[in-house]
Amino acid sequence: MKDVIIIGCGLGGLECGYILASEGYHVLILEREAQPGGCMQSYRRSGVELDTGFHYVGGLEEGQALHAPFRMLGLLDLPWVRLDNDCFDRIHIAGEAYDFAMGYAHFAETMAERFPQEREGLKEYVEKLQDIGRHQIDWLDPSLSADCTTFAPDVYGADFATSAWKWLNSHLHDARLVNVIAGNAMRMELRKETLPVFTLAHYNSSYIASSYRLRGSGRLIVDRLISGLERHGGKVVCNAEVVRLCEENGQITKAVCSNGDSYEADIFISDAHPMLTYDLVGESSKIHKSLRWRMHKLENTYGMLTVSIIVKPGALRYAGHNDYIYFRPNIWDGFENDSPVSGALVSYRVPEDGTDCVRVLDIMTPVTWKECEPWASTSLGHRTEAYEAWKQRKASETVALAATVIPGLESMVEKEFVSSPLTYRDYTLTPNGSAYGLRKDCGSPLLTVLSPRTPEPNLFLTGQSLMLHGVEGVTMTALMTCAEIVGKETIWNKLYQI
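Predicted structure:
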């Protein structure tokens, strides 16, 4: 069986490794950091495990988007905890609160109670969610298409080429509801000029279908995937930074690491950002300067500043929902550079000590790279006092905004740890510390929605910068990448145990 080298041990790399190893491929994952997991990794402070980027996930129940993939990957029996049925996301806009209920009909009905004149528009919105939710994996069905890469934007051309802002305004007439519907869009980049309706509907579809958190950190997912990979003979090597991919006779032949070690294989998969992947390929007869130039010109989504709080024991009761808080009534006009901070997401970690009180609270706010640029040339452990002052100011403003819905929050803090897009960039190498990878643009979907294929016949891409981000998006992309190698019929049969 063929040898496969995967560059990067994030969720996409791990999922590809697990799937291919289970099919008999000899898989080696090379990870530059000392710890695997990428955006899914966690870290320990004061004896408490804190997450880097994982908070909750949608679509885990029978017949929903992630049920079959997670069953195949051995992730379905992790300690998942369902969020509240009547309110899994609470949207706070200019002092008013709106609850997102689980289940398409339940969501539409409860929202129509607040916006009775929009009942028909809400019905159309929910139908759009269901349509995308039902058909988003059709590109793998061998009976429907001969080419697995006909997933987005070919299959969903209209939805990728349509602005989410324009679509919502053409179906809903209350400007307040247009803001509420997009209120949990801090899981993506809420940008009226570029956000495709497919991206908005894709994520809202799965979370409205069902939403879950883990009792524990994202490390549970990473450890389970590595365990499965190793059980099938695969291996992860950390502290192995790939600095060059060598081409010979029109294909990639080996990966060279910064310590001089090199690894040969038949197939290579990169879980790194596409721009970085193409930069790894040296002299090439396949990858031309124009392609490298295009990759460098593509824009990335904004990053996030995260305040991870260790809460004093017994100080704050667990909430089975997330809070999205906006100071201004119009959330589509951009709030990333506001001072004080005007938008934040609050996520409550499921208690692990048998009590009903949280020990970990994550509060996040979007940050553009422009804010970080003064310190772009610095690295971890070598920031300036001005950077630390900026970071602390942003953190204080973010916590203050969260305190508008959690009264007395500041007095509940035992310890606080802050990361910025610069932190994220240095750990993951994601350009500009982007939270969601390359920006999908409804104005140019064919340029911004990338295929796993590259001009190199044995080099493939995976990860959040291709078509979809987040746990579900990366998982779908990993399935697509593997389908390019083993065939989509094989993946389809594994998913549905045919």
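Summary: The radius of gyration is 22 Å.
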